[in-house]
Amino acid sequence: MPQRWELNSLLKRNLWIVTGKGGVGKTTMAAALGLLAARQGLKTLLVETHGLSHLAELFEVETSSTAPQAFRNGMSLFQLNAEAAFQEYVLLQIKFEFLYNAVFNNKYVRHFIDAAPGLAELLIIGKIWALVEDAAKRGKKRPYDLVIVDAPSTGHSLSLLTVPQVVSDAVRVGPLKGKAEEILTLLRNAEKTLTWLVTLPEEMPVNEAVEMEEKLRGDAKVAVGPVLLNCVWPEIFSKASWEELKKKQIDPPMLELHQSRVEQSRYYADRLRERLPERQILELPLVYQNKIPYRIADELSEVIHGQLVNIP
What we know:
Layout: H1 7-11, E1 15-20, H2 26-39, E2 44-48, H3 54-59, E3 69-72, E4 75-79, H4 82-94, H5 97-103, H6 107-115, H7 119-137, E5 146-153, H8 154-170, H9 175-187, E6 193-199, H10 203-220, E7 224-232, H11 239-248, H12 252-275, E8 281-285, H13 293-309
Parallel strand pairs: 1-5, 1-6, 2-4, 2-5, 6-7, 7-8
Antiparallel strand pairs: 3-4
Helix pairs in contact: 2-13, 4-7, 7-8, 7-9, 8-9, 8-10, 10-12
């Protein structure tokens, strides 16, 4: 039997990480989850990690890589990148910005971050840790009840979540090992951190979601929450209505296309449940793109809410 999640239980976490194969609607799902949390009264921070302002475009707001930007009641947005995180870390150590600018603020910094294996991922996941835990560690109130990370696509997300263990294994002592251990403590605490997998009712996305779920539990050792099955074609006709429409010959090619997509969605939804029997699968309907993007996210957040609250 799949684990059934209640909304209140999910909202007790401090960090949600949203991941999935590229093109499955991960950013829209992160936005929908952010809207859901904010409506429940949580001060929510949405974090982008892949250098593009998809969430900012979706909500039609400005974003920054230096500090979170509040943009509506209870919601803030932060565009996190490795270079800004590197600058912040170095400034904390040397204290003088002019020295940073003289030594680091040149074209070689970007090349250094890109070339050093795992450094970009470590900087990003380290900053995520700081957004969640830094204030609490210093005895202050957390600035956000919930941090939601729009993580990279599956392979890069796995690197992001496993690099602290790599560093911890490679470094015997010192502040770097200590920081890696702190990050691991947060990521592997199921009471604080939860991952959300996003996929589509298609063969490759389903296969990749199943593989990623196993790697999240096995390699990254993080808790996996509900799986979001996006773009499920809705069954808008009853069997009787479908037969009646076929008899009347109303645009048969279009009707057949729709029905084939409905059947495909159902087939892969069933297959996903068979292969992930312990996971609760939340089905999100296909939403046609004639709506403003944040309206789509808002609509989908209501669908998620309904499926979490109304558990049979």
